[in-house]
């Protein structure tokens, strides 16, 4: 038996390749799925099954994509009317994989179609080896329960409690847990950075397992969690089956003239992936600054799936990574990228804008003199741990909807943890008409390092 973990950066998504006796299965594959066929080739294995733990909401599932490369059969829950797949399963359904037995355990809560897959080392074994838990159980945390609907949030939370205590923990403390995400996912709140865990370790150390049912429900329903708008598209794709990448529009290298012409389209959006300092110095008017690594998540807040995406890259070699990040979120309409870079745009005399960079020391001086307003765009849990007096708080993902509440009678400084999210926020503010916008480079990390005061 061999097991390989495939981690997708940015989304903190984990998928799994399990092989025994040259027979293999893949659990929750990502959309760019050639990696699984490469692993299969390494082990001279045939992929028999593609197993989904639930209708994922934070990325495009790669099951159909992988089935198109193999003749594997897709397995998922009978609780959701999926429009694709060969097996709709529930409690106790089993599959043979070489000498192994894989058994489905229904664990509703995060979603009603959540299924965990328990692996035994033989057809007759009664002692499980491992369990793939999807978004039901993470290392140090459990899956959020608000996504099926706020009107049934409590019902879902109670379901998750029963799933954890009546379905998973009874498997035994020795069972190894392979979760669907690691730290950084939006599908939980306080995940550990451990890759794997065990049921016994979680029973002893996970604070959530120390709560009785009432306390568990109160805790889960008190969480402040974000739901990006792109989740709705992911739910539709993962229910009906997403389009195959071979049918995605071709992305072109665009000259300055071609880029400018395409950018004039009313449904075009320019994503500039350079670092905040470079973006602040010079950028194409109307651009949104989302760093290369952040393309794995933040386009889901600021881009709609019917928009034409244009990219400005620091280096052309970054295009493949940028395209992969976007397509994992279902953004296939990537029209092109500026070739070779922003310098060519400037050298043609095309218009540029800039942002005002601000150091924490300058920020403090201007705040003391009441020369500007301050906007903090971090998440709730970061804000609660310490923020600057008189700052206004709007999460960067909510900025487009809530910017109307910002002061317009003085310049506006934007701050986050380090400056990346603040640069995105500042670029969005420029897009909707705010002119005097500052990005605090170094953000709250630098502010605290200098010993400047915060309040909780």
In short:
The chain has 456 residues and is an alpha/beta fold. It contains 16 helices and 24 strands.
If you had to describe this structure to a student in words, what would you say it looks like?
This protein has 456 residues and is of the alpha/beta class. It folds into three domains: 232 residues, 4-Layer Sandwich (Metallo-beta-lactamase, Chain A), CATH 3.60.15; 100 residues, Oxidized Rhodanese, domain 1; 94 residues, 3-Layer(aba) Sandwich (Oxidized Rhodanese, domain 1), CATH 3.40.250.10. It is 28% helix and 23% strand. Strand 23, helix 15 and strand 24 form a beta-alpha-beta unit. It is globular. It starts with a strand and ends in a 7-residue tail after the last helix. The model has no long low-confidence stretch (mean pLDDT 95).
């Amino acid at each position: 038996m061999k097991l390989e973990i495939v981690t997708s950066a940015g989304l903190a998504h984990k998928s799994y390749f399990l092989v025994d006796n040259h027979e293999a299965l893949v659990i929750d594959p990502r959309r760019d799925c050639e990696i699984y066929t490469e692993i299969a080739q390494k082990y001279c294995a045939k992929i028999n099954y593609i197993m989904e733990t639930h209708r994922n909401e934070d990325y495009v599932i790669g099951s159909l994509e992988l089935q198109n490369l193999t003749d594997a059969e897709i397995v998922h829950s009978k609780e959701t009317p999926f429009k694709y797949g060969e097996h709709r399963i529930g409690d106790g359904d089993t599959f043979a994989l070489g000498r192994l037995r894989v058994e489905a355990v229904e664990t509703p809560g995060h979603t009603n179609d959540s299924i965990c897959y328990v692996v035994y080392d033989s057809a007759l074994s009664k002692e499980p080896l491992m369990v793939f838990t999807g978004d039901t159980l993470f290392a140090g945390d459990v899956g959020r329960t608000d996504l099926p609907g706020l009107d049934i949030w409590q019902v879902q939370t109670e379901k998750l409690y029963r799933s954890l205590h009546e379905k998973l923990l009874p498997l035994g403390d020795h069972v190894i847990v392979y979760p669907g995400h690691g730290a950084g996912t939006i599908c939980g709140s306080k995940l550990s950075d451990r890759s794997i865990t065990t049921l016994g370790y979680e029973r002893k150390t996970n604070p959530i397992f120390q709560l009785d049912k009432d306390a568990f429900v109160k805790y889960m329903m008190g969480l402040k969690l974000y739901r990006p708008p792109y989740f709705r598209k992911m739910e539709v794709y993962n229910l009906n089956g997403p389009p195959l990448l071979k049918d995605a529009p071709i992305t072109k290298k665009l000259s300055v003239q071609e880029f400018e012409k395409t950018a004039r389209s009313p449904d075009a959006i320019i994503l500039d992936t350079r670092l905040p300092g470079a973006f602040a110095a010079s950028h194409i008017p109307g651009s949104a600054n989302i760093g290369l690594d952040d393309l794995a998540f933040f386009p889901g807040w600021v881009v709609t799936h019917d928009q034409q995406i244009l990219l400005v890259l620091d280096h052309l070699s970054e295009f493949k990574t940028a395209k992969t990040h976007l397509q994992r979120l279902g953004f296939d309409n990537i029209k092109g990228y500026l070739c070779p870079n922003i310098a060519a745009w400037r050298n043609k005399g095309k218009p540029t804008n800039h942002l005002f960079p601000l150091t924490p020391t300058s920020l403090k001086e201007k705040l003391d003199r009441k020369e500007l307003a301050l906007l903090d765009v971090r998440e709730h849990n970061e804000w609660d741990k310490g923020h600057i007096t008189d700052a206004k708080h709007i999460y960067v993902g909510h900025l487009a909807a809530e910017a109307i509440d910002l002061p317009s009678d003085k310049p506006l400084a934007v701050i986050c943890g380090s400056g990346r999210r603040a640069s995105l926020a500042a670029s969005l503010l420029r897009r909707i008409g705010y002119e005097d916008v500052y990005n605090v480079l170094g953000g709250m990390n630098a502010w605290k390092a200098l010993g400047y005061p915060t309040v909780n």
